[in-house]
Amino acid sequence: MATTTTTPGTGARVQVQKFGTFLSNMVMPNIGAFIAWGLITALFIDVGWLTKAGLGTSNDSWVAEIGGWGDYAGGGIVGPMITYLLPVLVGYTGGRMVYDTRGGVVGAIATMGVITGTDIPMFMGAMIMGPLGAWSMKRIDALWDGRIRPGFEMLVNNFAAGIWGGVLATFGFFVMSPIVTWISDQLGKGVDFLVENDLLPLTSVIIEPAKVLFLNNAINHGVLTPLGTAEAVETGKSVLFLLEANPGPGLGLLLAYSVFGRGMAKASAPGAAIIQFFGGIHEIYFPYVLMKPKLILAMIAGGMTGVFINVLFDVGLRAPAAPGSIFAVYAVAASGSYLGVTLSVVGAATMTFLVAALLLKTDRAAAEDDLVAATASMESMKGRQSIASSVLTGDAAGRIRSIVFACDAGMGSSAMGASVLRRKIHGAGFTDVTVVNQAIANLTDEPDLVVTHQDLTERAVQKSPSAIHVSVDSFMASPRYDEIVELVARGNGAGSAAAGADSGADSGADSGAGAGSGGAPEPAGGLVLSEDAIVLSGRASTRDEAITEAGELLVEVGAVEPSYVESMHEREESVSTHMGNGLAIPHGTNEAKAAIRRTAISFVRYPEGVDWNGKRAEFVVAIAGAGDDHLALLSRIAEIFVDAAQVERLRAAASPAEVLDVLEGVAA
Q1: Is the pTM of this model over 0.85?
Q2: How many CB atoms sit inside 10 A of residue 575's CB?
Q3: Which of 151, 204, 251, 544 is 20 to 30 A off residue 227, Cα-Cα?
């Protein structure tokens, strides 16, 4: 059975998943800062181990000046970090996710307003104001995009960001701070109610099923982390950090499968337990629950047991534990909490083991557990394949000899992606692994691994059901490439540059698919790229306008019929041609090749960038490929755009001749 990444749905659950992922993406890059704050707190506050060092102790004049939080906040490093550094980092990250660095800066300014308007750690406010500031700045910039006099761009952009940032900071101070403070108070009262009435263990009824359905990010990073941080400020620790991160329930489940499971599930459970408990990758046990949904009862029982013990012993962590490894939990455990934390992990694992063992032993199902199907279901819910979960299905153990990049037409996006991945695979020493590109229509069931844009994966699975399928949303800079290299390393063993690779198989075309290995050929009738097809400051302000502008350049140089431009728009509606690294390569459909007179490309630079399906495109390279002679030049373009120095040369080019000089063989 293929290991696949399916296209996410559009239901309510998927929308909550996306929201949770967005929150997680604001917090997770800054977990190191949270851990640093937790460790500094453990060492230097008044009840810490190195109090006399003075880094966390009070400074009365500073406290009086800012109206701080008493002795805990202090004039040392602890108070300013939790008050300013951590929320600003979260706000900046959220803004940058929406509108690159400019959005991050405006988001950070807006976050400062909501921070200074309250006396509690304003993480929730940062998660609102950071993205809101970036989004609104992006909309404002669009109002005068292309209308600024040359030479005044930097002046307008800087003043616009400063003025709007100031407006947002004021809005955050007077409007958002009271609102977010009220929301935080109500949530805090809800948690206090559960604690005071000894009902906190009941949260496991929500948290454990949410984890398996990948809804936990919305709860963990949207509610538990902000509230837990606020509680840690006041008391030095918070049990809320342990509600989701406790590795005990997952360990107990996997141990039960190790003893009472069957087939592949039993064989893989011990390895999965090591990854989950020590590596903190909780997702690895999710398929075991999805395989037998009734086991969610065991997870809830274990989670409730762990929370009950934590409350009984009054333990907590000083900061979030991420990932949920036992090492991470101990690293941020509050002094005096180690015994209780240990007992909660052991108790949770034991309770889960006992309940799961009972359910597994009494299971009358005759068929062997379909762990592969459960893993595919889990990855479908998550929206992507996980290299860690490949351990469950055995995919990582198989040798990978052939990788195919597949796209709709097999002549643009896939050729560039194949070129980038080929360099990574061969650079790691696996020169015997072939990496080619194909149109999805030409796929067979022979490749070991197929890479597609996430919108095309389902079609690729139908063509190559036995392959491992990996989905990407960026062909130039996808983090999945490193995961693929890791997967090859696991299946193929140590790489060898002397593996006897067949260079023809690696770079040649198969069914009109592979990229050539030589320089770009010169087609009859004109240059592939001429100065007449280069624009250094494009006029377009939208994706569709940019496609038209780049396509019309191909028409003007006589490379394509006007109808080809329409096919470029048709192709874009099918799958985005944004490659990553600021590059988009719009091109026509496979059916539109009859409108191509000769191979050619056009180059349009947009210094301020164009919104391309939510991503920024600074360089638009339109492609018209007659036959397969354009594939080598696509490989060359890929090499240029993964080289930061070459991209900077294109960004600084002052004339079409300088662009031609950078692109070298592409223009031949």
Answers
A1: no
A2: 18
A3: 251
| Alpha-carbon distance values, 150 to 251, 581, 645 (Å) | 62, 25, 25
- Give me Rg for the CA atoms of the chain: 28
Please give the Cα distance from 377 to 470 (Å, whole number): 15
Residues 6 or more apart whose Cβ sits within 8 Å of residue 656: 531, 534, 536
CA dihedral (597, 601, 604, 610) positive or negative: positive
For residues 274 and 320, the answer to whether their CB atoms sit within 8 Å is no
Q: For the purposes of burial, counting CB atoms within 10 Å of the CB of 61, is it exposed (0-12), middle (13-18) or buried (19 or more)? A: exposed
* ∠ CA 366-372-375, rounded to 5°: 120
CB 559 within 8 A of CB 597: yes
Q: Residues 328-342: pLDDT tens digits?
A: 889 889 888 999 999
The candidate with the shortest Cα–Cα distance to 287, out of 163, 201, 390, is: 390
pLDDT of residue 370: 53
User: How do strand 434-439 and strand 402-407 relate by DSSP bridges?
Assistant: parallel
DSSP labels for 640-658?
HHT-HHHHHHHHH--SHHH
Q: What residues are paired with 580 via a beta bridge? A: 583
3-class SS at 604?
A: strand
DSSP string, 423-463: HHHHHTTBTTSEEEEEEGGG--S--SEEEEETTTHHHHHHH
The ranges of the chain with pLDDT < 50 are 1-10, 47-48, 52-75, 366-369, 384, 387, 395-397, 410-411, 495-525
Determine if residue 447 is left, alpha or beta; phi over 0 gives left, psi from -120 to 50 gives alpha, anything else beta: beta
Separation CA 271–CA 280 (nearest Å): 13
CB atoms within 10 A of CB 21: 17
How many alpha carbons fall within 13 Å on the CB side of residue 442? 20
Q: Return the half-sphere exposure (C-beta side, CA atoms, 13 A cut-off) of residue 545.
A: 11
Contact between 89 and 25 (Cβ < 8 Å)? no
Cα 123 to Cα 128: distance, rounded to the nearest angstrom:
9
Q: What is the pLDDT of residue 195?
A: 65
- Amino acid identity, position 336: G
Contact assessment for residue 626 and residue 553, using Cβ atoms and an 8 Å cutoff: no
Nearest-CA neighbor of 379 among 472, 279, 461, 387? 387
Interhelix angle 153-171/123-143, rounded to 10 degrees, is 140
d(CA 624, CA 599): 5
User: Residue 581: left (phi > 0), alpha (psi -120 to 50), or beta?
Assistant: left
Please report the pLDDT score of residue 14 as a whole number.
Answer: 56
- Residue 177 CA, chain-centre distance (Å), reads 29
How open is the CA angle 7-289-360, to the nearest 5 degrees? 150
Phi, psi torsion values for 414, nearest 5 degrees: -65, -35
pLDDT number for residue 582:
86
Length of the chain, please?
668
Instruction: Locate 104 and state its tokens.
Output: 């991050």
Inter-axis angle of helices 86-116 and 12-27, nearest 10: 100
My answer on whether omega of the bond before 323 falls inside 30° of 0, hence cis, is yes
Q: Which residues contact 355 (CB under 8 A, 6 or more apart)?
A: 297, 298, 301, 302
Residues designated catalytic = 407, 587
Residues 67, 72, 74, 76, CA torsion sign: negative
**Tokens linked to 600:** 């050619």
DSSP H or E stretch at residue 42: helix 31-44
